[in-house]
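INTERNAL AUDIT FORM
Audit reference: QA-55
Scope: verify that the stored structure record matches its stored sequence.
Auditor: D.O.
Record contents follow.
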Amino acid sequence: MVFGDIMVLIREMTLKDCGAVAEIDKNTFSVSQSKEGYEREYSNPNSRTFVAESEGRIIGFANVWNICGDVSLNNLAVIPEERSNGVGTLLLKEVLNRYRGCDFVTLEVRKSNEGAIRFYKRFGFRQVGLRKDFYTLPTEDALLMTVFLEEWQG
């Protein structure tokens, strides 16, 4: 898909992508997962990681668990120079379309991350709970947000 000035392909992560995904994770989140962690995600039948690729380079990813139809968006990240260019939107749309047959998708987001909260609300996510001290480095509450897929218009 052409997005802005770049061609972006959204696809499932391969084993060879794990290092690039781990690097984006490390540069985005205060507590990150290693390359080996993403290799385990790749081998986990309940886990899917979608990557955004442009010109042979991984520029973003979304990691999802689907356990008996209970879908959790664990991480969504885009490299800094491609943020606000629609890559996150493409990744989230892929997740929501891929799991459209399920009832809902849930995620946690730092209570202070107003940009991410606004982003998720644009897709119909709404706060359904609060997880006290969910995050570390620094310690912070998480908003538990859910989108009910029958309500999502795509």
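Auditor finding: record pair retrieved intact. The helical segments are 18-28, 35-43, 87-98, 114-122.
Action required: none
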